[in-house]
Amino acid sequence: MPVAQGVAIATRRAVIVGLVGLASAIGLLVLMLWLAGNSGTIEVRLGDSDFRGIDAANLSAEIAEDGPVAFPDLVGRSRPIWVTHGGSDPTTGWSSFLARVPGKSTDCLVQWDADRNVFFDPCDAATTFPPDGDGLEQLAWRVLDGELRIEINAPAETGG
């Protein structure tokens, strides 16, 4: 009957290894739940916080020739923007702002009137805004290594 004794020892080891593995798995699960429960908020950040990839020199030349440039909202949050530029230095003189008229429907997006050199509210044509978008929600911007970057998720503080 030596065969039965060998099987009993192997069974005992298997049960011990199984119990240790199960205890470890439960311990890891409790640790993961504890770590996940430490933060009361979940912050989802998809994509960049700024709109980038714009060659500042090329865009400033385009704006000088054709006027301000509109960019539609690409993430579906109703945040289309206008970008304008004044002066000859592509590292300074930028204005970027939301196209929505404050306090109005999301359908009221300012339009550029090249003849009058102003932005106007299509829902109320008497309401106009200067070329720098003063009166609309301004967005912070910066030029890094010739690339214009617009902070699409944060309003401008002062300047650009």
Short note summarizing the structure:
The chain is of the alpha+beta class. It contains 2 helices and 9 strands. A hairpin with a 4-residue loop joins strand 5 and strand 6.
Could you describe the 3D structure shown?
The chain is of the alpha+beta class. It folds into 2 domains: 1-43; 50-155, 3-layer Sandwich (Rieske Iron-sulfur Protein), CATH 2.102.10. Helix content is 29%, strand content 29%. The protein has helices spanning 2-36, 56-66, and strands at 50-55, 69-71, 81-85, 94-98, 111-113, 118-121, 124-129, 139-144, 147-155. The strands form 3 sheets. Strands 1-9-8 form a 3-stranded antiparallel β-sheet. The termini are far apart.
Observed structural traits:
alpha+beta, elongated, three-stranded antiparallel sheet, Rieske Iron-sulfur Protein, 2 helices, 9 strands, 160 residues, 29% strand, 29% helix
Give the overall shape: elongated
CATH topology heading of the largest domain:
Rieske Iron-sulfur Protein
Average pLDDT works out at 83
Q: Gap between N and C termini, in Å?
A: 89 Å
Oligomer: single chain
Number of helices: 2
CATH class of the largest domain: Mainly Beta
Structural class: alpha+beta
* Cα gyration radius (Å): 30 Å
In terms of DSSP E residues, the strand content is 25-35%
Helical percentage: 25-40%
Number of domains: 2
Which series of helices and strands comes N to C? HEHEEEEEEEE
Name of the CATH homologous superfamily of the largest domain: Rieske [2Fe-2S] iron-sulphur domain
The CATH architecture of the largest domain can be named as 3-layer Sandwich
